[in-house]
Amino acid sequence: MVKHDVQAVLDSYYAEALAAAKPGFIQHFRELSAPFLLSVSQAYLDAPVRVMFIGKETNGWCGKLGAFYEHPDKIDIAKARYEDQHARGTGNSGLLRQWKRFADAFAGGDRAAVCWNNLMKMDWHRPKRGYSRTSIGHSAHLFNFSVAALQFEIELLKPDLIIFGSGHRYDRALKAVLPKRETVKVEPKALWRFRSNGIECFRTFHPDAWDKHAPRPIKEYYQKIIDTASEVFAERLPMRKAST
Q1: Does the structure show a pLDDT above 70 at 242?
Q2: Quick one: which of 4, 72, 145, 180 is 20 to 30 A from 11 by CA?
């Protein structure tokens, strides 16, 4: 698969889906963020194990939705923001640090080779909620738009391994994205391992969640995911770099 060809298919989908969804989003232009659109890397397409790391939604992203729709080159702007994230440090973000750990474990340390994604394509800004921009409860319109987009991305990009760092409260979106599932093992509300359409999948707490909400430190669940997936894909990763 060649990046240019894959991205062209993705961009065409984004343009059509966003145009079709615009009438339903107009009333929310000031409260929703610009959409989280992927810029596919050749490193991901060439990776021995294609890993997709899926969070809940962004927490402030590329401006407001209304301003996004006004730009004639809006899709390119959104992709540039996504690419810019790869060049930034991880800072204090647990999610970005975990993204780096997955890159260390499965992609030789190259974050661009691990596809970062989100269940909800836009975040929801409510001043009274402070830092939180949780958007799964915003509207059926956003929910359905996000589910359809993620389904398209997964079908096109064909990940071998998906890690949902979204917590159990987002399971209704996860289940809508991947309706056909076979559970392998589950620790209620903590760690869920399943397979869907040949993809090895895990769901656990968001990396930035508080440890007091989990039976044990959240980093231990992520280490378990790395160790388990490394065993599953051992033949493809003979020289796996130890995670930190």
Answers
A1: no
A2: 180
